[in-house]
Write a structure and sequence with these properties.
The protein has one domain (about 1-155): 2-C-methyl-D-erythritol 2,4-cyclodiphosphate synthase (60s Ribosomal Protein L30, Chain: A). About 30% of the residues lie in helices and about 30% in strands. It contains five helices and seven strands. β5, α4 and β6 form a beta-alpha-beta unit. α1 (about 40-50) packs parallel to α3 and α3 packs parallel to α4. The two termini are about 10 Å apart. It binds magnesium ion (MG). Magnesium ion binds near residues 8, 10 and 33.
């Protein structure tokens, strides 16, 4: 059994779509980034890479590369999972915490779980998603950013 952790944060701005866990969520702002800036999937990718001993998302998909501009993070997750699988691992479980003052994420939880589980070849029950606010405190609490933390466990496939 191997464990990996991931963390990501992106700035919230006007004029961008909000994409979390591969779900487009209706909101007045979206996250700024080179890709679709899906912090949930970026934290998940880093946790997967960490557990497999494969470095981090920036090494594999640099945000200086034009070919990753505007890329769906579902695509980044699929490529990351491929790297992990090629190393002989399968996913055991995922646990994610999203830190966001708004919007309410509960209505989107099962769609996010389904997206992540489908790529990782596990059951949605193996992908847990939690959401919390920052009680108005700090950058996230003021609605200027959204962050996500993720823990993944992998097992050897053979
Ligand atoms: Mg990111």
């Amino acid at each position: 059994m191997r464990v990996g952790t991931g963390y990501d944060i992106h700035r919230l701005i006007q004029g961008r779509k909000l994409v979390l866990g591969g779900v487009v969520i209706p909101f007045e702002k979206g996250l700024l980034g080179h890709s679709d800036a899906d912090v949930v999937l970026h934290a998940l990718c880093d946790a997967l890479l960490g557990a497999a001993g494969l470095g981090d998302i920036g090494q594999h998909f640099p945000d200086t590369e034009p070919r990753f501009k505007g890329i769906s993070s579902m695509e980044l997750l699929a490529r990351t999972f491929q790297l992990v699988r090629d190393k002989g691992f399968s996913v055991n479980n995922v646990d994610t915490t999203i830190l966001a003052e708004a919007p309410k994420l509960d209505p989107h939880r099962s769609a996010m779980q389904a997206n992540m589980a489908s790529v990782l070849e596990v059951s949605p029950a193996d992908v847990n998603i939690k959401a919390t606010t920052m009680e108005g405190l700090g950058t996230i609490g003021k609605g200027e950013a959204i962050a996500a933390m993720c823990v993944v466990t992998l097992q050897e496939k053979y």
